[in-house]
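Sequence in, structure out. Go.
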Amino acid sequence: MAGDFELTPDKLREVARFAQAAAQPVLSVFEDACPDDPLPRAALDAALRGRVR
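Output:
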């Protein structure tokens, strides 16, 4: 497929850190709107711990 590319594990971690940093400021907005949904915070916490593979 055109546009396909591979990410090294280091590049994938870099992308995860960027996504985490971009999402962190709006997490409270989401949690106010959907207080019973723990998944976004869990995903951000996992990214912070480096658990994104």
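Check: Residues 9-48 form one domain. The first helix runs from residue 9 to 23.
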